[in-house]
Amino acid sequence: MMSSQILVPGWLQHLLVVLLRLALSSAFPLRTSNVTTCSARGPASYILVFTGHWSPQTFPKQYPLFRPPAQWSKLVAVTHNDQYRLWQEGSPASPGVQNFAELGVTVELVKEAKEARKTRAVGSMYRTAGIPSGIGHSSTELILHPRNPLLSLLVKVIPSPDWFVGVDSLNLCEGGQWKQEVTFDLHPFDAGTDSGFTFSSPNFPTMPPENITMITSQKPNHPANSFYYPRLPQLPPLATIWLRRQARSPVRQHNHVSNHILPHHTKPQKFSETPLDCEVSMWSSWGLCLGPCSRGGLRHRTRYIMLKPANSGSPCPELEEQAECTPHNCLAQ
Hints:
Layout: H1 10-27, E1 44-53, E2 71-72, E3 76-80, H2 95-103, H3 107-117, E4 122-128, E5 135-144, E6 150-158, E7 163-171, E8 173-174, E9 177-178, E10 181-186, E11 189-190, E12 213-214, E13 239-245, E14 257-258, E15 279-280, E16 297-302, E17 305-307, E18 320-325, H4 328-331
Parallel strand pairs: 4-14
Antiparallel strand pairs: 1-5, 1-13, 2-6, 3-4, 3-6, 6-7, 7-11, 8-9, 10-13, 11-12, 15-17, 16-18
Helix pairs in contact: 2-3
């Protein structure tokens, strides 16, 4: 006599497994991604001050003096949440970032921000006036809302192939409270869309484009690079961002361009001078051996200065060298 067994069809077994998984997922929900949330009550108003520290004392190598001189573009700032990224180190530059980093044009950046604003990923976009020198200030007022507590910004280094300074997704809301004051040092970045090494390099597109990378004192590791200072462990700050929350109620102003400067921010910050060592070319070929056969001859070779020293850097070595030799016409005697 056969033992009694309950035969369960395969489709029913599959259905039971699915229902069991759904029950477990409701009892133990999966962890969500690390999304930035802000539980602050109401918006916050900030004053933002951008300060350029780009001077011949801190960055003497190839410092641009004309056509055009060292200067800063307009600052472009965006308030947003985790669903938007103006730029990110290690990622490709968007068309908007490329146009801005290479040409200082904001049309594509504005289009990208407006598109993200449709899904409420972007709050507002702000701009400041440009700075006509390497040292100076520009500023504007910002309004941040709890749904868009992050701040990103860009400023182009002028002149440069595709270099900029900026802030990526700075969170101004912490623990349900708006931060009162933030200071952030800015260092140069390469957008990865132009292969120029120097401030005045001609347009030389990078094909295919590379990711956005930080420029350091030794990267790119090439003597021609305008920011190449192998004696420094790191570059001094090229600029600084200073943010302070304002006590007064925020006023709704969008795309506001401003250039009012806080009184105690008008004094330039002092940094130690960066030593710049002399750079010379390779030796030329030896010249002809000249002189009387009785005493022997001399031959010469030369090199030239490629980069003059500055700020107590290593002085230039000898530019001419001579050596004894036997004149060619004496060898036949």
